[in-house]
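Minutes, project check-in

Agenda point 3 was the complex the collaborators sent over. CS summarized: two entities, 992 residues total, and the question is how they sit relative to each other. Sequences were read into the notes so everyone works from the same version.
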Amino acid sequence: MTTTVSDPVPPGAVPDLTSQVTDRLLRLADGLPEPVRAPVRTLVAGPGKFVRPRLLAAGAGFGTADPGRLVRLGALVELIHLASLLHDDVIDEAETRRGAPAAHTAVGTEQAMLAGLACFALVGTEAADLGEGVAGAVSTAVARLAYGELLDVERAFDTAFPMPAYLELVQSKTAELFRLCCLLGAAEVRSDPGVADALVRFGAALGVTFQILDDCLDLRPNHSGKPVGTDHALGLFGAPTLYALRADSGGELATLLLSPSFGTRDMPEVYSLVEARGGLEAAARLAADWHDQALAALDELPAGGPRDHLAALAASLLPARS
Amino acid sequence: MTALAADVLIVGAGPAGAITAAELARHGLRVVLAGEEAGEVDYEVVLSGAAMRGLASLGALEEVAARVVDTVELRLGQGGGHVLPEAVNAACDRRRLVDGLRRIAIAAGATWLPGTVTDPERREGAWQASTGDTTVSARHLVVATGAPSDGTPHAAGLLCAQPYSGVNLTASIVLALPAPRTIDPAERPTCVWAVPGAREGTCTIGASRLGAADPDELLETARAVLAEGDERFAGAAPAGPPVTGVLNSGFAPEHSVLDGRLLVGDAAGLVNPFTGEGLSYAVQSALLAARAIAAHPDDPDAAGRAYTRRLSATFVGYFETVTHAARRYHLAWRVLVATADDERPVSAKVRRAVLTPDGFSGLTAADLMPLPAPDVALLGPFLLACDEVAVNTVRREWPFIARLLIAGEHSPHQRLRPAAPFFAALLAGGRPPDPAFATLAAAIELATLGALAFLGPMPPRAAPGRRVDWAVASTVLAGDFLLAQASRLVAASAPEVSWSFADWLGELAALRATRIDPAGRSRAGEVFAALMEFPSRIGAQLGGASPETVRALRDFGNHSGHAFLHAEEVLAVRGERTRLDVTLPAMLTGRLSAIPDMLPEITGDLLAGAPGARSAALDLAVTACRDAHRAALGALQNVAHPVSARILESFVATVCAPSAPPSPPSPPSQ
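CS then shared the predicted structure for the full assembly.
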C-alpha cells in the first residue's frame, strides 16, 4: 500500500481508516468477475488521497459511529469515485491514472467500461446492504454524477460556457459526492437535523471550492502529480480560463484554445493570457466565496473536537488560496 | 357587415389550420377557418409516416395527391448513405396539400373565410375578429399562423426551399446532416434535404439551420452537399424562386396555450431542430387541438389544459430543456454524425428516434403481441403509467433519450418490452398488481436500455486528434445516465428490491466481461437470459407468488432471453431488420451471437455471405430459438394464473415469431 496520508485521530474515530478502507475495497474487488478484477485492484492499490472516506468519517464525528460500518461507508464513497474515474478515463482517453496505465489502456475500452459498470453495481448492492436510507441517498447522488458527466462532455471546447452552467456542472460532478459523504456521515450517527443540514451545506460548498482550485492547478506551471494542461487539452476549460474568455475581446485566447494543434506546450501562453485577463484573480475570488460559504456552514456546527477536525481536514484538502 | 357565430375560430389556413378545421367539423362543431389565400410558390414537401397517418384519418391522402416514396436515404457526416429502415414517407406538392386540406375542411362543414384577419379580441368569453366585411364570434380560438418572426433565440433559425430540375431523383428522399467543420460547440448544424417532384427530373432542395444564416448561402450549401459525390444532383439547376421562412423550434407545452389561444403547428414552435421538419407536428398538433376542443366544447380553459397535456405526452424529446437546448442539440448532432457508420443497436435506434417524427418503442421492433381484449384492458393502463414515469425521468435532462421511450402511436401495450413479462409475473401470485409497481417497471425498461449501451459491441475509437470521441463518450454517458436514473427510481419506489436490482446489473457486467474475455467461457445467450430473467423473477416475488412459481418464472425469463438472441440471429442471417437494429457482422464480430461458438468454421463464409454458410447458420438459429421457446412454455406449466400465463405465452411466441414456420397464420391481434 502506498497510502501515507494520516489525520490526527479524534476520540472515537477509526485510527487507520484509509488502510481499512483500502482492505475493504480490495475485498470487494475480489468479488468482481475475473476479467475486470485486475483493473479495479490496480486502481484501489494506487496512491489515493481518500478525500471522500475521510470527509465521511469526519462528518460522523458529531456522534458515535460503529467503526466497521464507517469503514464500509468509506469504501462505498471511494468506490463511487473509482467507478467514475474508470468511465471518465474511457471518455477522456487518459493515458495514466494514479501513476499506472489507465484501465482502458491496460484491458481495452470495453472491459474498462464494464469494470466501471461492475463497480457501480457493487456500489448498489453495498449501499442496499447498509440500509434503505443509504441506498436512497447513494442512488440520488450517483444519478446526479451521471448528469454531471453528461454536462462535462457536452461543454467540451465551449469557450462561451456561462458561469451558471459551470457551477451547475461543478455541483453535479464534484460537489455532489462531497455532499453525499457529509450526508452519510451525519445520518450514520443520527445527527440532529440542524447539524446534518449544516454538514451537508458544508460538504457541497467545500466540493465547489475544491473543484475551482483544482481548475486553477491545471493552469499552474510546475505542478507535479498530473500533467499540467490536461483538462485544457481536452477542451475542458476551468473557472480561471472561462472568466478570462469573457474578457477576451480580441479572441486571442479562444483562438489558441480551439487550435487543432493545441498541446500542453501551449500552456505557458494560456497562463499569461488568462492572467492578463484577470481570470486567475476572478477564479480565486469565486473560490473564496465558496470557501466562505463552507466556513459559515462550519460555524453553525457545535464547537469542539469534531468541528476542529473537520476544519483541519478541509484546510488540508484545499491547496493554498492564491 | 355579416356576423357569423361559431364554436371555434381558426386563424391561419395552412395545413395545421385546415386540419384543425376539418377534424372539428367532423366532431359536429361550427368552425370558421380564416386566413390568406394560398399565394405561395410551389415546392415539394415530405409527409412522414406520422403525417400520413394523420391525413389518412381524415381521408385526405388522395385529395392532396400524396405520392409514396419508399426510401429515405440518410447521409450523416462524411459517411456513406444509410437507408432508414421501414421509413414510409410521401412527397406532396405544397399548394395541393393546402388546397386539398381546405376542401376537406369545407366538405366536412367548416366555413372558409379567405382574407386578412384582424387580431382576435376576447370580449365576455367570446373571441371576435373580422375578415373583410364579415365578423366572427367564437368560444374557442386556434392560432395556426406559422412561425413567429420573434422566436426564442436558441430555437430560431432559417428554412429555405427551392425547386430544381435536371435531377435524377425518383424513388427516394435524401436527408443529409453534414459533419461539423470545427470542434467549437458554437457551430450550428445545417440540415439538407431533397424531395422528388411529380414531374420527372425535378425535385425540391431544402435546408435549415438554427441561428443566423443567409438564405442564398444556405441553399448553395444544400446544393453542394447533395451534389458532393452524388451524380444524381450533378446537373441540378434552379427551376423556380426560392422560398424562405423562419424556423422556430422553441416549443414548450406550457407555452402552447397563450391567453386562451391554442397554438398549433409552427405557431407553437413544433419543428424538429435538426431537420427543420414541421409538417408532421403540424398534422399531429392540429388533431390534438381539435380533439381537446371537441372533448370540452363548452369550456375553453379545460380544452387548453387538455391540449397542453396531450402535447406534452406526444412531443417528447426535442423541446425540453430551454436552458440547455443549444448544448443538447450540439451534443446530439455530434453523436449522430460520429455514429453515422455505427451499426450497434443503440446508435441505430438513436438515429431513428432523433431524426424521424414517428414514435416507436426503443426496445423492440414493431412486432405486436396478440392478446385478448380483457388482457389488453388489464395490461394497457399499467404500461401507460410505466411509459409516463420513464419519459418524465429522463426528458428534462436528456430529452433525446426520451425519444427512445415513447412507445409509438398505436398499441404500446402490445409491444415486446420487458415491462410486459414483469406485469404478467406480478399477476402470477394471484393478486391484482399494485399500480405503484409501474415505477419499478419504468426502472426496468430504463435499465434495459442502459444495459444495451454497455452490453452491445463497442464503437470503434475515433481517429486521433483534438476532439471528443463522441461515439464512445455517448455510449458511456447514456449507459451511466440510464442505469443511475433506474437505480434512483428503484430506491425510491421499491427499496426492498435495491439489492437485487444492483446485483442484476453486476451480473450483466460479469457475463459480458466474461463473454468478451478471450479466456472466458460464457454462452452468448447468457447475457440476454439474465437481461430477461430479472423482470419475471422480481415480478413474481413482489406479486407474492409461491417459491415454485418464482422459480418457474425465473426459468421462463432465462429461456425467453435465449430465444430472443436466437430470434435476432434468425433475422440478422436473413438480412431482415432485427429488434435491436443490429446487423449480422456486428453480431458476429461483437461476440453477441452464438453462431461462431457452435459453427466456428463457417463464420468467415457467413460474413462473406456464402449461401451454404447462411443456410447452416439459419438452421442452427431456428432450431435453437424453437428449443428455447419450448423450454419457456415448459416453465409456464407451473404458472397457474391464466392471465399471467397467457400474456407470457404471447410474449415468448412473439419473441420467437421469426423462427416460426410460415403457416399457420398467427391469430389476429386485438
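Noted in discussion: Chain B touches chain A through 58 residues (CB under 8 Å).
Follow-up: revisit at the next meeting once the mutant set is ready.
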